[in-house]
Each structure stands twice: as structure tokens, then as C-alpha cells.
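Incident log, support desk, overnight shift.

02:14 A customer reports that sequence design results differ from what the structure should imply. Their input is reproduced verbatim below. On-call engineer (initials T.W.) acknowledged and began investigating.
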């Protein structure tokens, strides 16, 4: 029994394995099932992979390093050496020629006596003739005088006819911006004359600038042109004898107030004239004030 069992076991083992091997076959059957699933996978990405490298490879020539500069040839170097040697040789030759020549006699340093003017020196200009003396004095004296019969302004600006920088900036819609602008333009001082005739209010301003860096008076005037021309229902005329001066007459605003203004400058002084009235302002009135004020400068 022991021998037959051992022999039988040995002989029967392959038979059991052969019989048992087909049993896991159903477990290995999913392998062919996975093969058809793998087949479409390479087909779908292939066209995408083929197109991507083409687009990526096209800019490769741009990434190529720039060519090095062309090397300078020996001919250029030889020409440069020859030029240097020519300059040295010419300098030496010129020095030898000058050394062998006899020295030239220099002219005498003495000069004839210069003729001087005789008589007294010219008299200095009077204050009335010297414009610089006039504009450096009391600026209020250059303002137009209040007409006879006119009254003082109801709400006068400044103090005793003077306006400091802060008071002058308050006359604008944006005082802070105007203050900074005038500082940049080298504001020096300002004088004002104000009066009232019936329903008409008149403001005459003289603004003086230091003008060390720029031309503050002319730049201030040209800046005022921009805003004056933007007012609705506005007509304008040049002021005779002022070069670039302009006079403007504006229509009524939302509150029914008419206005007119004149802008001009002379030297370092800017002229600004305003008229306000409850009725239209004639051109003659603003032009007359502008011309008379410019004559005083």
C-alpha cells in the first residue's frame, strides 16, 4: 500500500495538475478581453501626438543663438597700423623741418592808446522810464483806478488791494490744484482792484511772477485761454497792442449771470479782468478796460 500510494501519487500528480490547470482558464480568459480594449488606445492619441510636435518644433529656428559678429580681417589691421605709422612719421618730419628754420621775430605787445569818450556819463533812467523800477514798486499803483461814481465791491477780496497765494487760489474752482500750479509757476505777488457800477461788478487783477526758471506770466495766460474758450455761447477778439491777449464775452450761466473776461500779459505780469452783470455785456466795455490797463504797464 505504501509503495502503490507513493507511485500512484507520483504518477497521478501530473494528471491532477493537468485536470486542475484548465480550471483557472476562465480566470485567464479576461486577457483576450483586455486586448481589444488596448487596441483603440494607441489609435486615438497617435494623431494628437503627431500634431503637437509639429507645432512645437516650428519655433525652434527662433531659439537658435544669434550668429557671432564677423571677425575683422588682417587687411583692416594692416591698414590701421599703416595709418598710425604715417601719422607718427609725419609728426616727426614736421618737427625736424621747424627745428631747422630760423625763429621768426614776434610783433610788439604794445598797443596804441584807445580813444575814450569825453563828457559826463549818461543820466540813469527815471522811475517813469525804467519799466523794471516801475514793476518792482507798488503793484497796486499800476491797476486801473475806480471810475468816478462807482462803489466799492460788496465782498472785496484780499487785504488792502493785495492777494496772497492762498487768497488768489481761492478764486478758482480747484483751490488746491491752483495753489500747486502757481507754486510751480513761481508766483510772486498779486494785486486787485474791485468796484461796482449799477448791476455790474468789475475785478482787475495783476499777478507777478519771478520767472527765474520759466515764463510764468505767459504760461498762466495761455492756460486761461483754454478754459475761456470752453465756455458756452462765447465770442472772442484779440486785444490790440498785446500780441497774444484775448477778450471774451460769455453768455448767461445757469443762474442768469453774464460775464466777460480779458487775458493778457507783459513781461512778468499777467493781466486778468472780469466783468459780471445781470444783462449782456457789450464787447466795447471789456475791450476798453483791457486796453487801458495794458497802457498802464
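02:41 Re-run completed on a clean worker. Output:
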Amino acid at each position: 500500500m505504501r509503495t502503490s500510494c507513493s507511485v500512484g501519487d507520483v504518477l497521478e500528480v501530473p494528471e491532477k495538475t493537468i485536470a486542475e490547470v484548465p480550471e483557472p482558464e476562465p480566470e485567464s480568459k479576461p486577457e483576450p478581453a483586455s486586448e481589444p480594449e488596448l487596441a483603440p488606445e494607441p489609435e486615438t492619441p497617435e494623431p494628437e501626438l503627431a500634431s503637437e510636435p509639429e507645432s512645437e518644433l516650428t519655433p525652434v529656428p527662433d531659439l537658435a543663438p544669434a550668429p557671432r559678429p564677423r571677425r575683422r580681417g588682417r587687411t583692416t589691421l594692416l591698414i590701421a597700423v599703416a595709418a598710425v605709422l604715417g601719422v607718427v612719421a609725419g609728426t616727426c618730419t614736421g618737427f625736424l623741418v621747424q627745428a631747422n628754420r630760423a625763429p621768426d621775430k614776434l610783433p610788439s605787445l604794445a598797443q596804441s592808446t584807445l580813444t575814450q569818450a569825453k563828457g559826463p556819463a549818461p543820466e540813469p533812467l527815471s522811475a517813469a522810464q525804467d519799466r523794471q523800477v516801475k514793476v518792482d514798486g507798488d503793484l497796486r499803483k499800476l491797476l486801473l483806478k475806480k471810475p468816478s461814481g462807482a462803489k466799492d465791491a460788496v465782498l472785496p477780496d484780499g487785504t488792502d488791494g493785495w492777494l496772497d497765494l492762498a487768497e488768489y487760489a481761492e478764486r478758482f474752482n480747484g483751490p488746491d490744484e491752483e495753489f500747486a500750479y502757481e507754486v510751480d509757476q513761481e508766483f510772486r505777488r498779486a494785486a486787485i482792484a474791485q468796484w461796482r457800477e449799477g448791476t455790474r461788478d468789475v475785478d482787475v487783477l495783476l499777478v507777478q511772477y519771478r520767472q527765474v526758471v520759466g515764463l510764468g506770466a505767459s504760461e498762466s495766460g495761455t492756460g486761461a485761454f483754454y478754459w475761456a474758450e470752453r465756455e458756452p455761447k462765447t465770442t472772442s477778439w484779440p486785444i490790440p497792442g498785446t500780441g497774444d491777449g484775448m477778450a471774451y464775452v460769455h453768455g448767461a450761466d445757469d443762474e442768469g449771470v453774464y460775464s466777460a473776461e480779458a487775458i493778457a500779459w507783459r513781461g512778468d505780469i499777467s493781466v486778468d479782468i472780469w466783468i459780471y452783470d445781470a444783462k449782456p455785456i457789450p464787447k466795447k466795455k471789456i475791450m476798453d478796460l483791457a486796453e487801458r490797463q495794458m497802457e498802464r504797464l
